[in-house]
User: Which sequence fits this backbone?
């Protein structure tokens, strides 16, 4: 798919996944025949696969956009804002109490939250790279299957030619018995 075709698809909009996958498969076949595959092409196919996985898992489109963004806005932030939905003096007292207790709670929770943020970032990076590598391996596998099939056809043709030649040689030799 060209960049224009990808830009026409909105995350969260109703998308015909089978149509997109058919277009991707068609492009793969064309590029396989030409023997051309670039890193950008593989990244594009991997992104399409991630979108398909998200669609199958029914992930919220806003979360998917945040997961795909390079700024890591999806990750846990240990610096939370203290607020309340109440109003009046009672609200001010609750916010003050939370602010007083916050440093003691953060002694126990900050290292856990920061470690979880690191783990989350690692897993997102790992999953993106795994999908890209799986896509690359599937392309290579398809190329190898195509080459094996072509070699088998050539082998069959060569065997038939050989049999024909053997029959022609046997037919032309006189029987000396």
Assistant:
């Amino acid at each position: 798919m060209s960049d224009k075709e990808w830009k026409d698809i909105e995350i969260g909009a109703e998308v015909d996944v089978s149509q997109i996958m058919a277009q991707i498969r068609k492009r793969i076949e064309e590029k396989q025949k030409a023997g051309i595959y670039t890193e950008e092409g593989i990244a594009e196919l991997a992104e399409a696969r991630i979108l398909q996985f998200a669609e199958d898992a029914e992930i919220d489109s806003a979360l998917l956009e945040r997961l795909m963004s390079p700024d890591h806005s999806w990750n846990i932030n240990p610096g939370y804002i203290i607020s309340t939905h109440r109003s009046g003096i009672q609200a001010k007292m609750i916010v003050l109490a939370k602010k007083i207790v916050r440093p003691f709670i953060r002694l126990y929770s900050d290292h856990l939250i920061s470690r979880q943020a690191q783990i989350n970032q690692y897993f997102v990076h790992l999953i993106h790279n795994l999908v890209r590598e799986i896509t690359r391996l599937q392309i290579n596998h398809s190329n190898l299957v195509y080459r094996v099939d072509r070699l088998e056809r050539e082998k069959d043709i060569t065997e038939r030619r050989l049999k024909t030649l053997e029959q022609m040689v046997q037919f032309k030799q006189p029987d000396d018995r």
Summary: Residues 3-77+108-172 form one domain. The chain has one domain: 3-77+108-172. The chain is about 75% helix and 0% strand. Helices lie at 3-7, 17-34, 39-57, 61-68, 89-172.
